[in-house]
Amino acid sequence: MADLKGKVALITGAGGMKGTGRAIALKLAGEGADIVLTDVPRPPDNLPPQEVKAGWRSIESVAEEVRALGRRCLPVWCDLTVSSDIRRLVEQAVEHFGRLDILVNNARALMGQDRDPVTSLREEVWSRFLAINTTAPFLTIKHAAQVMQKQGGGRIINVASEASKRGRALTAAYTTSKFGLIGLTQCAALELAPHAITVNAVCPGAINSDRFNYAEQAEATAKGMTIEEYRASYVANYAKNIPLGRIAEPADVANLVAFLASDEASFITGQAYNLNGGTTFH
C-alpha cells in the first residue's frame, strides 16, 4: 500500500468514465492524496457512447468520486495544446492546495487520425500528436518541477506506451510522440535527481478503456457494428495474443503509478516499465 497522505497529485487526461486517468485519480485518492484533475471539454461526437448515455460529466464526475473518498479535489479544464493553459494549470494547483507532490502525465491525443503512411500523413495530424503527447508533458514537467524543487522533492510519472519501444506501420505520429516521451523521461530524471525528484514512465499495451478512437469508429461503421460491439470483439481477439490472456485494465496502470508515486519507489528513476502481459520485454 502506498501512503500518500498529505500529498497533492495532478493528473492530466482524467475525465474518461472508463479511462486510466480516472482509475489513477481514484487509486491515488484512496491512498490519501488530494487530487487536481484536468481534461479538455469534448463535443458529444468525440465521446464514447456509454458516457453520453450515462450523462457523464468528465472531470466533474470524477471529482465527485474523489470527494466521496474523503479527499479534496480541484477539477480544471485545460487545453494541453496551449502553453499558457498548462502554466496556469500548475499555478492553480499550487494556489489551491499550497503544494504539488505528484505529476501524472496521462493525457494523449485521440488516436486513429494518424493511421496513414508517412507519405500521406497530414502535417497537422503529426503536429497535434507531438503537441499533446510530447510537448505538453515537457511543459507540465517544466512548471511542476520548479514547484517540487522548492519543496525538496516529488514524483513525476509519464504514461507512455508499448509504442514507445516498438514502431508499427501506420502509427508514425503516435509512435514518434511516445518514443519522445521516453527520451524526455530519461533526461528529466537525470536533471531532477539532485532535487530528489524521480521521473519514470509506464508503458502499457492495449488498455480496456472506452477512450474515443477515430480508427475504431471507422472500422465499426464499415462492418455495420456499434462501437461497443466492435470493441468487445477487438478486446477478445487481442487477448489471444497476450501471454497472460487478457489486455490491461485501467486499474493495472493505476496500481503501477501509485507505486511509483510512493516512498517505496524513492530509488527508482529514469525507468520505463512495460505493462503488457508479456508481449514486450525490453
Characterise this structure:
- There is one protein chain.
- With 282 residues, the chain is of the alpha/beta class.
- The chain has 9 helices and 7 strands.
- The protein has helices at residues 20-30, 49-54, 59-68, 83-97, 123-151, 172-192, 214-222, 227-239, 250-261; strands at residues 8-12, 34-39, 73-77, 102-105, 154-159, 197-204, 272-275.
- Strands 3-2-1-4-5-6-7 form a 7-stranded parallel beta sheet, sandwiched between helices.
- The longest helix is centred in the middle third of the chain and has 29 residues, at 123-151.
- The model has no long low-confidence stretch (mean pLDDT 94).
Give me some keywords for this one.
282 residues; alpha/beta; Rossmann fold; 9 helices
Portion in helices: 40-55%
Number of domains: 1
Kindly state the number of beta strands: 7
Task: Spell the H/E element sequence.
Answer: EHEHHEHEHEHEHHHE
Q: What is the level 1 CATH name? A: Alpha Beta
The major β-sheet equals: 7 strands, parallel
Mean pLDDT: 94
CATH superfamily: NAD(P)-binding Rossmann-like Domain
Tell me what the CATH architecture is.
3-Layer(aba) Sandwich
What proportion strand?
Answer: 5-15%
Tell me the radius of gyration: 18 Å
The chain-level structural class is alpha/beta
Low-confidence stretches: none
- N-to-C CA distance: 27 Å
Strand order of the largest sheet: 3-2-1-4-5-6-7
The rough form would be described as globular
Q: Look up the CATH topology.
A: Rossmann fold
Our count of helices gives: 9
